[in-house]
Amino acid sequence: MELEKELKEQRTFANDAQKAIVNLFFSYYWTMQRFDLFLENEDISTQQYNCIRILQRAKKPISTRHLKDYLLQKNSDVSRLIERLVNKGLVETATNQEDQRKLDITLTEKAKQILSRLELKFEELWAIMKNLTPAEQTQLNFLLDKMRG
Amino acid sequence: MQLEKELKDKIPFRSQYSKTIVNIVYSANWVEERFNEYLKPEQITWQQFNALRILERAKQTMSTKDLKALMVDKNSDASRLIDRLVLKGLVIKKASEQDLRKIVITLSDSGTFLLKRLEARFQEMEAIVGNLSDDESVSLNNLLDKMRG
């Protein structure tokens, strides 16, 4: 739906650039809300999910520093995020053998089970984008890439 | 730059759907970072800016609840956000003239001046999406609107 109609606030934009900025934020929150629904039964946040997926893809323990680089939300407090994941029993931490200052993070069995369960319903996640045809998604990706320069 | 090249995580996406979702999250965070740079001289975050602009456009006092309803980021803690703005002297809390039991908020003079200063720099803000031509901004808006259905 057109952004102006969807926003609770009746407003007009000075130009399409201004609207694009608001639209991107609005669409981001919209996407996150749907992502939360996908994770609803697993009691984890999108950020926690993002973390354990990074660990799963890495297929080996990674350091806190590494994890921070891989996260999409750069302003997140990684130490706190890891602390929460440890408390939930989703990751384990151990001092790195070669460098005592580094902390290695590993997925637990519990986290692996969550990821397997979610994998079965990945299509639900992808359905977030179902209103766009493949060609439109290509176009959207192209524009976002170009925007970031 | 192409998303795959920009991400530190070099593992390919499982589907175009995944890529589009990641691109939206990544791009919104990218815009937020730039937005925060633009706001840095004023020492406010974009959520605070967003709240101040809503108050400015409303041209009248509002309740916290009304303000929250108009905010794009539904997860943000509006009461805490307003308390911070009050501490910074940008917003004033007072009893409603219609109903003395109700608390309403309004922009302070320094809040109004801050917005005036930023308004003079609006072009800088729009330059965040400056890599896109006008037509491309229109396309981006159309695609995001269509995505949300």
> What is the helix content of chain B?
55-70%
Task: Please describe the biggest sheet of chain B, giving its number of strands, its sense, and whether it closes into a barrel.
Answer: 2 strands, antiparallel
Which term fits the overall shape of chain B?
elongated
Distance between the termini of chain B: 27 Å
Output the strand order for the largest sheet of chain B.
Answer: 1-2
The strands making up the biggest β-sheet of chain A line up spatially as 1-3-2
Shape of chain A: elongated
Structural class of chain B: mainly alpha
Q: If you had to describe this structure to a student in words, what would you say it looks like?
A:
The complex is a heterodimer of chains A (149) and B (149). By secondary structure, chain A is mostly helical. Helices cover 60% and strands 8% of the residues of chain A. Chain A has 8 helices and 3 strands, in the order H-H-H-E-H-H-E-E-H-H-H. Chain A has helices spanning 3-6, 16-39, 46-58, 64-70, 78-87, 109-119, 122-126, 134-148; strands spanning 62-63, 91-95, 103-107. In chain A, strands 1-3-2 form a 3-stranded antiparallel beta sheet. In chain A, strand 2 (91-95) and strand 3 form a beta hairpin. Chain A is elongated. The model of chain A has no long low-confidence stretch (mean pLDDT 90). Chain B has a two-stranded antiparallel sheet. Chain B is built from 8 helices and 2 strands. Helices cover 60% and strands 7% of the residues of chain B. Chain B has 149 residues and is mainly α. Chain B has helices spanning 3-6, 16-39, 46-58, 64-70, 78-87, 109-119, 122-126, 134-148; strands at 91-95, 103-107. The model of chain B has no long low-confidence stretch (mean pLDDT 91). In chain B, a hairpin with a 7-residue loop joins strand 1 and strand 2. Chain B is elongated, with a radius of gyration of 19 Å. The interface between A and B is large, with 59 and 59 residues.
Short characterization:
The complex is a heterodimer of chains A (149) and B (149). With 149 residues, chain A is mainly α.
